[in-house]
Every structure is written in structure tokens, then in C-alpha cells.
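Q: Hi! First time doing this. I have a protein sequence and I read that you can turn it into a structure. Is that right? Here it is:
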Amino acid sequence: MRDADPRVVLGLHRARHERRLLTGALDLGITALDTSFNYLGFRSHEVLACVAADLLPQFTLSTKVGYFPGADRAEHSLAPARLHVAVEQAVKDLGREPDLVFLHNPEHTLTGAASHDRYALAQACAALSVAAAKGLCGAWGVASWDPAPLVDLVDAALPQPSVLMVRAGLLVGARTLDAADAVAAAWGLGGDRVWGMSPFGGSTRAPVWDRINPGVFLRGGNRLTRAQAAFRAAYDLPKVSTIAVGTNDPAHLGELIGALASQVDEQAVREYRDLIRPRSRDQPA
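A: Yes, that's right. Below is the predicted 3D structure, encoded as C-alpha cells:
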């Protein structure tokens, strides 16, 4: 077994909730697991407890709240009472307190810098802060797919999360990268408290990965596969300490871990960000 590497989290967004995947991750030294209240049709917590209750204590476990079952589809809410109940339900379904609970995509119901949006965000953050203070979770954070709407809302007066999780990697637009940096700075979060997610934009089989060479962003990147190079480069796009990545194959996790010893060419990353910024300034990420 490898020594635990805290920089990789097994994400369950698209992954099957199978015991073999969890044991495979542990065998590789991956001891962090990320899920959400709404994953697997709002059944992720229950299924994890059913198939791997004895394994869960071996993981640092993070989950997310913010989406709730609706009449026709999931609905989003920042209502403090609903968030608090969701955290309580997570504890019940998992059979343990999560180590970290993220406020899930708060931008989904925020429209901009309006005072009511800032109040809604502050109240939602306060609800998770209270949940942590009560011992319902070890800490709380914010997970944002598109942090741009948060830029004008976040400042030092808001409750400060322990972790900010944002999209990372070569498929993330300049607008989103810049917004992630701005939000982290406004909350006073260094790179060691910023996580990345979706480093491949959904799939390593997407045609884009046959057309680009991520190895140019690494020193000696020609020694890695394109997936490995893209994964390693994602830690600097934006600067993050940890990446949550999903898979159904433990061997894929092992391949990605093999890339962590490589060094990113920071100048190449800076030049890349400068290059894409004018092209995507007015485009959605």
C-alpha cells in the first residue's frame, strides 16, 4: 500500500458506489472521499452506508448540501433551515458526521451583487458554520461550479469557509479561473485551502484530449500520458492543493497518482492564462 496522498480525493459524482472502488482507493493510499446530498438520486449517503459502513471510518469524508428533491427535478435552496436539516439527514444516513460539508453551488440561486443576494449567501454560510459548531460536521466549505457571481458578494465580513472547491483544469475558462482566484482571496484562503474538481471536464475520452498536449505545461511532461499530464496541470489552473476526481476504475486512480511527482512549468501556465483571457473575457465559462 502507498502512503496516503492528501492531494487526491475520490469523487462520487459520476462514479458507481461500489465497495471495490473504495477498497481500491484505500489500497492506493487515497483516504479522502467526496459525495453530495443529491448524488445518486439523493441516495448516495444511504448507499455508501449500506455497501461500505465499515470502510467509511477510514476516509476523510466530505459532502455537499444545497440541492433538494423537487416535484419534477432537483431544486436549489439557500434557506438556512433546509440546509441545517440536510446536514442532520446526512449524519443520519451516513451513520457518522462528515468531516467537511460544502455549500453546494450557491451561485445557482444568486444573481449578482444585490444586497439580498449577499444576505442570502451570508445566512447560508452562517447555517453551515452553526452546524459545524454543533458537531454535525467537522468543518464547512463552499463548492462552486461558477464562482463568478460570488466575486461581488464575498468579503471578510462573511463567515469564512475552511475550504473553497472550484473547477480546475485546462477546460476551465479564464473568467472562471479569475473568479476562483478572486473569491479565494476575498475569503483569505491560500492555495492550501482551495480544492479543484472535474479536472477532465467530465471525461478523459472527450475528443479534446486527442487534440491537445497537456505535457507542455509540465517539466518533462513527455514522460506522462495525456491524462496524467492534464491531471497534474490542473493543480495550477487555478492554484489548488487537492483535486476531487471521479472514476469507476481504481487503475485509473493509480495512473493519476503516478503524475503527482511531476513539476508544473509555472511560466507556461501563466502564459496560457494570459493567452486565453482576452478570448474568453466576454464568454461564459
